[in-house]
Amino acid sequence: MNSASSAFAIQRSLNDIEQEFDVIIIGGGITGISVAREAASRGLKTILLERGDFGSGTSAATTKYIHGGIRYLEQYDVAVVRESLRERRILALGAPHLVEQTRFIMPAWRWSKPPTALIGAGVLLYDTLAFDRNLHAPDSLRIPHPRWLSRSKLLAAVPWLDQSGLQGGFAYHDTLNVHPERLLLAYAKSAAAAGAVLLNHTRVTGFVSTSSDRLRIEGVAVTDVLSGRDYAITGKVVVNAAGPWIDKVLATLGKGTGVGVDRSKGVHILTRPLGGPGRVADAVFARAQSGRHVIVSPWMGKSFIGPTDTPIVGDESGVVVDPDDVTLILDTVNSTMAPTELKLTTDDVEMTTVGVRPLIRETTDDDGATQDEGTYSASRAHELYHHADHGVDNLWSIGGGKWTTGRATAEEMVDELFSNELKGVRSRPFDSRGAAAGGTFAWAEDAEPFITDAAMAMNEHGIPLHIGEHIARLYGTEWVRLDAIVQQNPDSAQQLSPNCNDIEAQVIFAVTDEGARTLSDIVDRRLVIGTIGSVSRELLERVAFIAGPLLAWDEATANEAVRREFDRRTVIATHWRTPVGGSSR
Ligand SMILES: Cc1cc2nc3c(=O)[nH]c(=O)nc-3n(C[C@H](O)[C@H](O)[C@H](O)COP(=O)(O)OP(=O)(O)OC[C@H]3O[C@@H](n4cnc5c(N)ncnc54)[C@H](O)[C@@H]3O)c2cc1C
Fold first, then answer.
1. Which of 247, 402, 521 to mutate to test the pocket of ligand 1 (most atoms within 8 A of CB)?
2. Lower CB count within 10 Å: N or C terminus of the chain?
3. Ligand 1, atom nearest to 30 Cα
């Protein structure tokens, strides 16, 4: 259907696993993908193994910000905030088509805790720590200093706020990660272009090792989840970047490492836009009298609200959104709204997301027990564990971290590999601080003129301007590939749904060039449609009809894929509406 693949294509092929790799990475979230990009770009023979799809773990469930984390200042976590602010700038310059500077409003009421003066001090400190925020930034990405908004200005910007006791608010900027799924994919594509082998749907089931008084890791055992076949992959060093599951991966060693993970559940809801359609452009960091906060973000014409932060005690494998999670978010946001505003109810919830935060356990124990103290104030720092310290050679694990700090963690990790197990291995010069993500139009340049030009060029081939803009914004320079697909097959310019600007050509590209292998891979992480609300059975059937032949699915396989994906989505959509003990549990 399409001719040569793009320079950034991700081709899922198990033929590539025979060689000995320098580094094997377990986990294809933002941490693992960033390590793969860094390692391959610096000349290492790299393979990454992800049991689901790239970015389908915690990295799929974020609040969608590349941010310093202003609230961590309350925990005096200045180092994490400073590192995150530095990364915020680096990531924004490296992919201007996929990020958006967003104004945040932090309202201050008479009863606010911390009190207004202290919030102000925090906002100022946040700004001071971001002293280099505009270095190399084009005008469109420049972040202004924060400022105080009077009560009337605040209400003009955020009309739904409770006015009683409202003093005004602080306005400051952070960076919206518009489509975290596609930004992660852009880094994956950079890794692939640098030679990394990236295998999604490939589960690591254990380690290949020799043992004397110490355990010497020589590779990993994997199962190709799609075929059920088992393989062994050998490499000089293994990096365990399995996020909240690093301890589960380590458990297969059959030997204690002292590394523990605390996990917390984070839920968001997608609702009608607070304040009315098209009226609210700012994100609001609203802290209720209960002390809980939510971030209300304008996203795709709706409000994206969350997160919760509740410790997970026991099994984290099937973490789902419960009725209590949604009630907590609704109660928190409703309590910050004016009495005259129509409160949000469960009927307004169009979609939910849920993720498991990986948090470093400060006091480690070997039994894997989860601390049951609060996780809200736990540090978001990352940590590299060198298991040589635990009697296991050639193995590292990465704990904690944020989406925002994935690149920095990866740089640190690969530096460590070159200083230890891969000492003497030839490296290539590469500086991820100044490197664009795959498909970026130009590093540190305003993407808008490029997007407009691309949309006009696509328009000459019959693609409406607004669809062309949608494609250029999502795919950057790879719009050319989508355009070529449409030229070869004009029907593929058709929109998949009137609710979204995605077109059929994106489904084709997802399979041929972006490693998508399931319907969820396509609609949830290559396209936008799965991230903005309900996906109908008809839509899944249409996607399967387009993708099926490219994936060598016969009719029965395609029907089964549709049935399973629709059932999976139905369970997610109804579970939190079902009282505890109800039938969908
Ligand atoms: C609700 C919520 C909101 C957040 N908001 C933000 C935000 O706005 N900004 C921000 O910077 N950070 C945010 N974070 C934090 C951020 O999302 C995480 O720190 C980050 O995504 C973790 O990435 P990771 O790659 O370490 O983990 P993951 O994304 O979970 O990746 C680990 C991967 O390992 C895979 N894996 C596990 N076991 C195996 C195995 N045996 N074999 C192969 N693969 C395996 C998993 O499938 C998974 O894909 C948020 C977190 C949550 C929960």
1. 402
2. C
3. 25
CATH (residue range 97-176+263-359) = 3.30.9.10
Distance 27 CA to ligand 1 centre (A): 9
3 state DSSP class of 34: helix
Closest CA to ligand 1's atom 31: 29
Q: What is the pLDDT of residues 277-310, one digit of tens each?
A: 776 689 999 999 998 999 999 999 999 999 999 9
pLDDT of 585 over the 60 cut: no
Parse the chain into domains and list their residue ranges.
Answer: 20-59+181-257+378-434, 97-176+263-359, 448-575
Q: How far apart are CA 292 and CA 325, in angstroms?
A: 13
Other residues' Cβ atoms within 10 Å of the Cβ of residue 315: 7
- Quick check: helix, strand or coil at residue 483? helix
Sorted by sequence, the CB contacts under 8 Å of residue 59 that are 6+ apart come out as 29, 30, 180, 184, 243, 403
Other C-beta atoms within 10 Å of 156: how many? Answer: 10
Judge whether residue 348 has pLDDT over 70.
yes
Q: Whose CA is nearest to atom 18 of ligand 1?
A: 402
Mean pLDDT of the region 489-512: 96
HSE (side-chain half, CA atoms, 13 Å) at 235: 29
Distance 287 CA to ligand 1 centre (A): 25
Q: Taking residues 340-358, report their average pLDDT.
A: 94
Q: 397 CA distance to ligand 1 centroid (A)?
A: 14
Cα dist from 447 to 366, 469, 572, whole Å: 49, 11, 36
Pocket (CB within 6 angstroms of ligand 1): 26-32, 49-52, 56-59, 61-65, 67, 203-204, 241-245, 249, 266, 307, 355, 357-358, 401-404
**How do residues 191-212 score in pLDDT, each as one tens digit?**
999 999 999 999 999 999 998 8
CA distance 469 to 485: 16
For a mutational test of ligand 1's pocket, the pick from 24, 47, 59, 360, i.e. the residue with the most ligand atoms closer than 8 A to its C-beta, is 59
Distances (CA, A) of 424 to 20, 195, 396: 17, 20, 18
> What is the pTM (predicted TM-score) of this model?
0.95
**Res 127: pLDDT:** 96
3-59 pLDDT, tens per residue? 456 778 998 888 889 899 999 999 999 999 999 999 999 999 999 999 999 999 999
Whether the predicted pLDDT of 584 surpasses 70: no
Cis peptide before 298 (omega within 30 of 0): no
Ligand 1 atom, smallest distance to 356 CA: 53
* Percentage, residues of the chain above pLDDT 90: 82
Distance from the alpha carbon of residue 402 to the mean position of ligand 1, in angstroms: 8
User: Whose alpha carbon is nearest atom 6 of ligand 1?
Assistant: 62
